[in-house]
Amino acid sequence: MSPGRPLSPFWALALLVSLPACPSPCVSEGASGQSAPQELVLVGLPAKLTLMAGVTGCEPDETLPSSLSAELSGPDNLPVEVRTAFNPASPTVGTLQFTPMQAGRHHLFAAFDPVGGIVQTDIHAARDRSTETQPLTLPFGCDSLERTLKGAWACNSSVMRDGSALRQFPEGRLAVAGDVVWVMDPRQIQRYEDTGTDLELTGTWPHTEGAVESLLATPTELVTLHAQTVQRITFDGTGLTSGGTTRWAPTTGTLPPGLGGPKALLTRAGDTLGITLNPLLSASFSNEVCPYTLVKGRFERTPAACSAFNGTVMGFEPGGLWIQESLSTQMLSFHEWTEAGLIPRATLSLSGVQTFPLIPTGQPTVVPVLTSHQSFPGSMGRTLHPPHALMPVYEPGQRRIVLEYLNSGLIDTRASATLLWGRSLTVTPGGAPAGLRVLSRPPALP
Q1: ω into residue 186 within 30 of 0, thus cis?
Q2: Exposed, middle or buried: residue 133 (CB in 10 Å: 0-12, 13-18, 19+)?
Q3: Domain ranges in the chain?
Q4: 436: nearest Cα among 420, 421, 418
């Protein structure tokens, strides 16, 4: 998927009101501070905010601010210690300093007194998890990327190890589960196991369902969604079997030229499968997820109604959908797929972020990536050079979304449920690009 417009996280946050060029600073009585955009800081690192009073004129006898006060509350709505600095010699400028100790939204209320304006804004504190994973560099580019436990890379339609191709499947879609590599092409499904040195073919299943739109994989089971049917393939230790296919879509339906995108996506909770139809192919042009249940080895449509939702799908995992609710409100939400249907769980509001409709890359999972081009320092005195990669993470225990920082200096950044990767901006001593930088995503925190 395409990354959104840069988010603006930085350690010295400038919450500014327009300041005319004047020989001496002054403010107009009763001026209100503008509501500043949401910003981002890193948990455990000092943050410094610079505030400027509202200025509309340059009359030397106008009243100036004489103090600055501020209140900051954390994600639990409890007060967070914030220190203010106000110099009467520069009464239109003040600074705030605090150290966020919790990930999540912090709310700021600051006011110049008796004039100068009020600023209210949300500040998101992201976890710095960059020290929990070490980047690897691959000498090739990948839109779709997965890794086996033994270290083979499923890159687009090839399986690579140590920079060389083990196998290539020009018409195939790949999915990795543990050390198993599933390969789907328009005529057959193959199951391979990574031995550590090669791929061993363990099963083949012919089919006539055509190209794969979406898929879900485990080491012993593969669910494939095709243009009109869904099928389930299982491995019994000796070979592959199929429980049969189920028609899920009308026989006609083609996406408008130039738009692209999968016809549908798969989510799953236990034996309940969810199929999200592209709204451009829906008779009502609406967003909905329809339930199917496992019956005698194949998925069949249940009598339950489909779950409707508003917005555009920006990412998907087996357990749910990442949805951009509206381009104007800029709300990113996570909707969990359950046996009772699709349930909205948490929403994150990020002012200044623009995202784009999901573009398929062949990934079984796609997680949104937010990028920032603003400088801010990292832990242990490191200087973090933009752009920075930030990922939304849904925490089911607290029913909230938090942001996690993983790496900097990447462009064309992509992410799945297990990996983050992008092209590095650094170059080798010979002047060639450094290649693809890949990080394993740290495990979810309890």
Answers
A1: no
A2: middle
A3: 12-130, 145-247, 254-259+266-348
A4: 421
Global pTM exceeds 0.90: no
What is 145-247's CATH number?
A: 2.40.128.630
The single residue listed with the structure tokens 């508003």 is: 310
Cβ contact 211:203 at 8 Å? no
How much of the chain, in percent, has pLDDT values that exceed 90?
46
Cα(310)–Cα(326) distance, integer angstroms:
8
Copy the structure tokens of residue 134.
Answer: 């070490």
pLDDT in tens, 131-166: 999 899 998 888 899 999 999 999 999 999 988 889
Distance CA 213, CA 275 (A): 11
**Greatest Cα pair distance in the chain:** 90
Fold of 12-130: Immunoglobulin-like (2.60.40)
CA dihedral (394, 418, 217, 356) positive or negative: positive
Cite the DSSP H helix spans in 120-198. Answer: none
Question: Do residues 230 and 223 lie in contact, with contact meaning Cβ atoms separated by under 8 Å?
Answer: yes
